Amino acid sequence: MASVPHAQSLHDMEGRVKVAAAFSPSADRREAFARRWGMPVVEDVDTIFDKSSIDAVLILTPPNTHRELVERAAASGQHVLLEKPLEVSFTNAEALVKAAEKTGVTLAVVLQHRFRPVSVALSQMVSNGRLGEVVSASAKLSNWRPQSYYDQPGRGTRARDGGGVLLTQGIHTLDLLISVAGLPVEAMAYAVTTPVHRMETEDLVAGAVRFENGAIGTVSATTCAYPGVPDSIEVIGTKGMARIEGATLIAKFHDGSDIEMDDGEVGGGAGADPMAFSHMHHRAVIEDFVDAVQRGRPPRVSGREALKVHRLIGALLRSAETGRREPV
Is the preceding peptide bond at 85 cis, omega within 30 degrees of 0? Predict the structure, then answer.
């Protein structure tokens, strides 16, 4: 599914990047991709990693394949834009980040919520002190996925996906929380698989987090919330409160002023169709990646930066198992 917004974005950027090759292990999917997008395909993935003329690769494969593919690209000196999550375990995630750092290639991760104009505006409000000292920062994801979604082979399994709602869906909202308020230092949570779904991993998580400055917040994530509503981030400060819900940001301040803005995005993928959203933010991710490679600067979401949300997810799930507060 992830190939669609990326292919649309690459079409938009035809004057800036050239697609040299695309690969899927399925011949039918390769042919369908070539027909739909008019991009060249190859029958062997080795063709991509062995070509010195290829500067960068977009890895849009299941999480359990990421480490091997990133390590191969890094060994070939190819820069990498990697779909979230990094990998199925923190050990593998950290290893692939180190592989990229060791060879000096650029590794960027597709966490496109950071590129929403409302997300950038909220981050600036916090960093420039407009909200004052942050006393609370919370995130909520209320998605809906029908059972047919999890009936697809590998979906929601530890072996292929590495986890459930947190690592597959909630990772975007939690990463946005981190980008705005910083990485929490402690977490505690409950995580369950509800009767709504037949699946191996969690589809409902409720938790609390504490930040370094003493601020606290809540974390909620589920794929049980029919028919799905937009995700939200809420930040409370000593000078006001700001809230993102879907594509809308509303901020109100103690001095009587307020700010309201909207991304203008249609759809957010919260419902039964996880791809019901615009590709505009994926394009922003790719544009940032290309610019980072060309200028030799870090991408906005590097592999090292993406490890932060994996640490938070790990702490939440450990707490659900141990029943104790866990360090992040």
Answer: yes
